[in-house]
Write a structure and sequence with these properties.
Shape: globular
Number of strands: 8
Bound molecules: erythose-4-phosphate
Radius of gyration: 20 Å
Largest sheet: 8 strands, parallel, barrel
Order of helices and strands: EHEHHEHEHEHEHHEHEHH
Mean pLDDT: 97
Number of helices: 11
Structural class: alpha/beta
Helix content: 40-55%
Low-confidence stretches: none
């Protein structure tokens, strides 16, 4: 299972990278705005900085909504760095654009996916990744994890190569449940990754081991 971090914050990306378990980064226009990154050139530079920190795929989202514009914008994003994956919204022109990018060997991440039907279309178009937003489904009393299960079943039925990127992950249990279901990738905040570390018995056990060592080695 790949671990992506869902942020445009360079410090958090570095921290996750230093942990040694980071496989990539996802961003979106809201996350860029949250870091105060505005203007086309600054945004492009920021993507390059992210690519220099991590080894894996970095999703950069188009803000265009028509086929021709998405192709132009996506090509420019893909040229920034070999690690860039063009993030395209699940709309009609987006599906056409994903097909174009797939035919032209440009990696894509189909975003804003909320149903199995949308995920099926993304795979048919040749998306590298499909991003079902599980947290946002949970927010409206719909089971986000069931969607991951449905997509896993459909993709396995037909051997689709599109990777299921569980997005909008909010906490550690999302990560664990996605791993049980067989999501290929998860993307979430640093806290959802670091939360996996925590167990009180680990802390209590370590404290005891260190205390016993100290006692035994006192002169
Ligand atoms: C996915 O790539 C999105 O950037 C993201 O996971 C959205 O998460 P949110 O619902 O917490 O905003």
């Amino acid at each position: 299972m790949k671990f992506f971090i869902d942020t445009a914050n360079l410090d958090q990306i570095k921290e996750a990278q230093d942990l040694g378990i980071l496989d990539g980064v996802t961003t979106n226009p809201s996350l860029m705005a949250k870091e105060g990154i505005t203007g086309e050139e600054n945004i492009k530079k920021h993507y390059q900085k992210i690519c220099e920190i991590v080894d894996g795929d970095v999703s950069a989202e188009v803000i265009s909504t028509t086929y021709q514009e998405m192709i132009k914008e996506g090509k420019a994003l893909a040229k920034l760095h070999e690690q860039i994956v063009v993030k395209v919204p699940m709309i009609k022109d987006g599906v056409k654009a994903i097909k174009y990018f797939s035919d032209n060997r440009i990696k894509t991440n189909c975003t804003l996916v909320f149903s199995a039907g949308q995920a099926l279309l993304a795979a048919k178009a040749g998306a590298t990744y499909v991003s079902p937003f599980i947290g946002r489904l949970d927010d409206i009393s719909t089971d986000g994890l069931s969607l991951i299960q449905e997509i896993r079943l459909i993709y396995d039925n037909y051997g689709f190569a599109t990777q299921i990127l569980a997005a909008s992950v909010r906490h550690t249990m999302h990560v664990i449940d996605c791993a049980k279901i067989g999501a290929d990738v998860m993307t979430g905040p640093l806290s959802s990754i670091e939360g996996l570390l925590k167990h009180p018995l680990t802390d209590i056990g370590l404290e005891k081991f260190l205390a016993d060592f100290k006692k035994g080695n006192q002169k």
